[in-house]
Amino acid sequence: MSVIFLLIAASTLVAGIFLGAFVWAVRKGQYDDDRSPAVRMLNDDPPRSTNNDLP
Amino acid sequence: MTERFQYDNRIVKNFLFVTILWGTVGMLVGLIAALQLVIPEFNLASWFSFGRLRPLHTNAVIFAFVGNAIFAGSYYSLQRLLKARMFSDVLSKIHFWGWQLIIVSAVITLPLGMTSGKEYAELEWPIDIAITLIWVVFGINMFGTILKRRERHLYVAIWFYIATWVTVAMLHIVNSIELPISLTKSYSWYAGVQDALVQWWYGHNAVAFFLTTPFLGLMYYFLPKAANRPVYSYKLSIIHFWSLIFLYIWAGPHHLLYSALPEWAQSLGVVFSIMLIAPSWGGMLNGLLTLRGAWDRVREDPVLKFFVVAVTCYGMVTLEGPLLSLKSINAIAHFTDWIVAHVHIGGIGWNGFMIFGMVYWLVPRLFGTQMYSRKLANVHFWLGTLGIIFYAVPLYFAGFFQSLMWKQFTPDGFLVYKNFLDTLLEIKYAYWLRALGGSIYLIGVFIMIYNVWRTVKTGSLIANEDAEAPAMEQVAIAKEAGHWHRAIERRPIQMLILSLIVVGIGGVLELVPTFLVKSNIPTISSVKPYTPLELQGRDIYVREGCYNCHSQMVRPFRSETERYGEYAKAGEFVYDHPFQWGSKRTGPDLLRVGGKYPNSWHYYHMWDPTSMSPGSLMPAYTHLFEDVLDTSTTVKKIEAMRTMGVPYAPEFPALANADLVAQSELITVALKKDGIDAASDREIIALIAYLQRVGTDIKAKPAATEAKP
Asked: Whose CA is closest to B563, among B349, B335, B388?
């Protein structure tokens, strides 16, 4: 059953990576706005014009 | 400053088309396998028999159909959600062609019997390495795109893709640790219970992180897009994601309930499985509630119809899964067709319908046109739904009733259905209906192919789609880059903990192989390594995919010990590389088959199963009677076993082939007594030697079979 140590280590490693990602996401303010991302993903604005003098 | 750039649609189109291609192939092979279960004569050749085609079916639908769909959907949505073209067109192409090459090599090697014998991870070691490399390419391409994104916020779908990538990488590597014998043959490094635990940790999490998380990502992108409504609750989607990934990875042992796995590990698996209901249903409801106010459109839009049924199937499967992991329910359902029905609700319901919805939504957009026929898409939808019902419902009934038959005792305490075959023939009707359901489902796919083909003809591919977005302010990032290493320096304790973790993992990875070898010292002293002939026979057992229909795991129930014999002990399997416990009993368990029948019975039975069991649905294995056993591998195999800690004497490899010949002579002599003139150098002799050995070591009397030296 010693293989369980390997599995626990591997699983914990991945869980650790995810935990790090979670902390990163919260600190970076990824979740400060929990409304607009859902709406913004609906917009795929094509370029408004073809000339280059855009603001 | 607004930047102009182009989305790469060609790679999306390529992945989408091969999704359809391999999906058709995978389902066709599934249908063939389904028919082989009811028409044994349909096992036309060694490479065209159920035991070899079933792994091809599962690998094709999981890694080719679903896999390519994940890549198509994520390449499309990643670019738009990140407002950036994929990191590298070259990497995209390598990813695409590399993955197709892997699939083609699977299509060739699996029917040829090149298999590692572990479910859903059958591919041999060179292909395993190729998968790892291509997966890394995918990872670089994805993370590269994330780094050069123009949208600071990472939409929830992207988190699901990231989790998929990270976890699948780890699962694949840990489960594929093998010792190669040749280019086409390897042994799992783990043995017996350990191998089983690793395999189902992998198997369960492959379902979690290949069939579930990437598709939840696709759901969070394509469902709101198709409905043109924001997701019901973005907050819930974030909670859904984090709770799901933290819980999922610990639930694997529920595949090994009542097996020889330690009790505490089984219970741990059950607890996490039950907890999984919460995030799964949170996600399912979030998907369905996104359609609030758009339900009128579901009536007309085939894309939304597919999505609604897909998400509903997801909900059903993720409620059923935790229930199946309760020990009392598992005792009934495990090893039966109930599980087959369960996974197909997930496979053809959740994955399949998500993919079809995605195809109908994407193809017109990629080709700048309208769907050729909405009517045909609706026909596909109804055929698909009908197919799911016809597939699953009969198998639910069959699984439940067959299990009850296995467990039925007469009032005076004897098994009612003593002959396993009787219980199988009772549910043969369900196997026919399942094939019918599969055919209906497949007809729907053909209609989709026609529809897609006509749609493509009316438009032309927008290979590079123009887009513009403001660049992400670089200020914050630049500042952060400068402080990166000072930021860590200021946190000595965190730094210490981090390095401890890293070192700890390194240590574990170094130590565990040693533990594994040590743990192969038998806990039951009468359990001995296989003889060279038995080992060769076992490899034939693995090659022919016997584990697809026969378990080697007698559970500690009276109904099973009465039927098969003593229940399985963990210590019995210490020399099994790989373990062959199986997960489905289309035929009876074989753990205690050793010594149960004379050699001649096996000889006749493998030549024509119906000669010994009238009505048997097992394929004949006539090629084993013609093919000469390849003994050139014997020495290498014994040496490999020694490397993995199997206690053969140091001088034994050199003597192995002499031992092998002597034992096959013994079997030939025994067969002669029963009037069979068999050549001693054929594969069938090795297989008989193995079958007569299986599970006999724990019996008190060592001379269980005449074939044993």
From this structure: B335
